[in-house]
């Protein structure tokens, strides 16, 4: 069986990087499955439910902001994908990993550039990871509403950067990212 792996959340200033691993039944196809960034939130939620109901197995992995700061975002993304594979209840035979790099695993694997738009299992992983990360950011919004994580999901929108300048970083901001590091340096 083939597993697809993808991550979301490399670009935000706050929150974790989240990855998913999805093993779909042989021959499974849904024309709506694509790169999660190209889908509306409503469509991602619908597809996540379908994927959850029909996947042979799936898993989620993540690296929190302190790990991102310690490892760097590239290594944290690969680590999150490896954790997603470990969280999957069924061991696949092969891996398809979105991007240019493979993960640490003894399983045979191929890195597929823009794989979330080319392979159903990677696209499905992209969707599950995005839905999971968005849900996490909604929870963080409840704790830190001033940053409006419900709307920006931690991405560096104009409003988010303005609030960062006014009140400084929260505990879930990535301190190694330049806009956040500058605020920390200024004592905010």
Describe it.
This protein is an alpha/beta fold. The protein has helices at 41-54, 65-71, 73-87, 120-143, 149-152, 158-167, 178-185; strands at residues 2-8, 17-23, 57-63, 94-98, 109-112. It has a 5-stranded mixed sheet. Helix 1 packs across helix 4 and helix 2 crosses helix 3 (73-87). The N and C termini lie far apart (50 Å).
Question: What's the CATH architecture name?
Answer: 2-Layer Sandwich
- Unreliable stretches: none
The total domain count is 1
Q: What is the total tally of β strands?
A: 5
Spatial arrangement of strands, main beta sheet = 3-2-1-4-5
Helix/strand class: alpha/beta
- The first-to-last residue Cα distance is 50 Å
Order of helices and strands: EEHEHHEEHHHH
Query: CATH superfamily, called what?
Result: Ribonuclease H-like superfamily/Ribonuclease H
- Helix share, percent: 40-55%
Q: How many helices in DSSP terms?
A: 7
CATH topology: Nucleotidyltransferase, domain 5
Kindly state the mean pLDDT as a whole number? 94
Question: For the report, how would you describe the main beta sheet?
Answer: 5 strands, mixed
State which percent range the strand residues make up. 15-25%
Name of the top-level CATH class: Alpha Beta
Shape: globular
Q: How many whole angstroms does the radius of gyration measure? A: 17 Å
Secondary structure layout plus pairing:
Elements: E1 2-8, E2 17-23, H1 41-54, E3 57-63, H2 65-71, H3 73-87, E4 94-98, E5 109-112, H4 120-143, H5 149-152, H6 158-167, H7 178-185
Parallel strand pairs: 1-4, 4-5
Antiparallel strand pairs: 1-2, 2-3
């Amino acid at each position: 069986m083939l597993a697809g792996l993808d991550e979301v959340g490399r670009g935000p200033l706050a929150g974790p990087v989240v990855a998913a691993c999805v093993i779909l039944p042989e021959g499974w196809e849904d024309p709506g499955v694509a790169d999660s960034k190209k889908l509306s939130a409503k469509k991602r939620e619908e597809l996540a439910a379908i994927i959850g109901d029909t996947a042979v197995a799936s898993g989620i992995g993540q690296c929190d902001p302190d790990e991102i700061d310690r490892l760097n975002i590239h290594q944290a993304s690969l680590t999150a994908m490896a954790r997603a594979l470990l969280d999957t209840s069924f061991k696949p035979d092969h891996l398809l990993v979105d991007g240019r790099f493979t993960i640490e695993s003894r399983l045979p694997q191929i890195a597929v550039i823009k794989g979330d738009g080319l392979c159903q299992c990677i696209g499905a992983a992209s969707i599950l990871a995005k839905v999971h990360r968005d849900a996490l950011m909604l929870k963080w919004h409840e704790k830190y509403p001033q940053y409006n994580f419900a709307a920006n999901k931690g991405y560096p929108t104009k409003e988010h950067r303005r609030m960062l300048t006014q009140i400084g970083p929260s505990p879930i901001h990535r301190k190694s990212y330049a806009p956040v590091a500058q605020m920390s340096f200024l004592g905010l």
